[in-house]
Amino acid sequence: MVCGAALCSAAVALPVGCTMLLGVDGEYTPVPGGEGGMGLGGSVEGGGGGGDGGGVSPCGDTRSDPQNCGACGRVCTCGACVEGECEPMRVVATRPSRIERPRLYLEHLYWVESGPEGDCIMRAPARDAQTTTPQKHGCSSEPIVDIDLWGDMLHIAGNASIKRTPVDSPANLDALQGFTVEASIREMAVRHGFAYWAASQHNYLRRRRTDGTNYSQINTGGVPEHIDAIETDSTVWVAWRRMGLVYLGQFHDGLDPVPEQESTSELPGLKLAFMQFVESPDLRLFWTTRGPDRVWAYSPGGNEGVAITGPGVKSGPGSINADQTHVYWSHRGGQREISRARMDVLDTAEVVYADKTMTMEPGEILLDQGECVYWVDSSKQEILRYAKTPQVPAE
């Protein structure tokens, strides 16, 4: 059975029995900002940040000292100091190539890049400014439609196959045994030894162990547009979106169709995550909609989805991600911003970074397990890094 129901932008109710994806794994030790700053010229709304850096006395001119940004002894955590302001740090730049399917694992960034050899997996350090040439981690003879990381393996979904390679060193892409994909894969997730995928021509969300055993599927009533999965207390939860709807349910053997409802909202982002403000971690489901432009949260067992509110909710919300305390999202239209809210207080939305030049096109968001948020700037095909906590602008 699947315990599931549809969630639309109007906050459709879910049954009590149906109650998220952990932020991208990774650890990061902050490096003081200096070279490599984007220089977008944006100030930052919101409060927080700061503290004494220590060992900097006298301060000198804080407008030119790269280690101080607007306050004596304060460094730009995860970013760069540009003319006295904290700006995002450029970590990866690939123009004219496009950055597709970015992922963060421990201390490295991975993404798909097309070139003369076909679609290739690229790899670069996440901790440094853009100082090294990205490493080619493996190329595929067929187009790469998605990548995901689990354990020490990088999983690659092609049009009709799923392959894998070690994350720590370039190697051949080895096809997973027992995987026969009869239609083009649309999206994939790998969690707890299982691969989940949706195909472009079938109304199913499917899963199989990465060793080729234990195949099962959910009838989704239509082609899933986005999928996510997580396991907690031996229960596998899956979420997917289809035609303006969000679904959440438990994945068991012997699966039933999930009920359908009507909706027209565009759903650019969807994320499952843990919340650890309480002794026993709770699950949360987050998604963004356009028309209306909102950011939604749902707690399994609740009666309806709740719209996140606060100064950080603007027009054009897109990609969304979450760690264990906050949910983060990007705004591509109107205000070009990165925002966040506490998981347990949904009226606390605040701006993390705002681009004054209004040229940035923030795309997919990545989070480490430390202090940094990363995102793709589609306008320049760059990956930028900034602090998760809003930085106080210079006075």
Automatic annotation (TrEMBL):
InterPro entries: 6-blade_b-propeller_TolB-like (IPR011042). This is Uncharacterized protein. It comes from Chondromyces crocatus.
